[in-house]
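hi support,

uploading two proteins for the ticket. first:
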Amino acid sequence: MTTILRHPRPGFTWDWWAVDAHGFLVHFSDGPAPEHLLAHVDRVDAAAAWAEENCPAWFDDGPPLHTFNCIGDLPTYLRNGVPDSPLRLSDAPAAIANVAVLVELHRAVGDTWTVHLDEGWV
């Protein structure tokens, strides 16, 4: 079964989180997400606002979590860098962990540089 991927507000930045197959927190920005996450867009937006206020380093270069940005409209995300000590979901603040568990990736991001969400990741 293919997962439907959509962006809640095309053309606008949207930050969302997932957990990979090894339990690491993964931050995605600017692109489509699994459609079921859109039912929780207000919760995800609140988590992003919380993170911007309480964890501003997460949005700078070298954050402690796996971070990917989408370029264009396709569900292709490019990594911003590989963290030295990536944050596990179990160590994430509750505001973020509560929305990250809504999207479980079927693979570990590890040192992957490109994630094609439409190729078996979700």
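and the second one:
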Amino acid sequence: MIKSLPLTLTLPMPAIAEVTLPHQGLNYLRPNVILDFVSINPNALLFVTPVAVLFASLGVLGHVPLRRIPVAASGRVIYPISTMILPELRGKLIINTASRKLKFLENQVVKPDEFAPSTSQVIGLALEFTFQQPE
């Protein structure tokens, strides 16, 4: 018998008070905030896709789109976040399927001659979630 692929539903990061920051139509998960992804959808999480990084430089908000590479949600995953446009802005996304939580950690590596740490920082990560739908 041939099994068909599971039906999926992909949802963007919703607006959640004190957890996300809205910017240009996307909601960005704040660093160091634990998100219970059951609050987005109760079904099994299959993938998390980082979409963009939000940063502030000299008080001005900017965002950098990321390559949309789905990260499989299986066990405990630590996924590095970086961009070719601004390699100084780094972070990591931690997905824990056992506890059904995820967290974005801002981990900025700064080149002093190009990017001043006192004036620039990562302040959010936009995500998409792919859930399995019941059959």
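thanks. also noticed: The CA atoms of residues 62 and 85 lie 12 Å apart.
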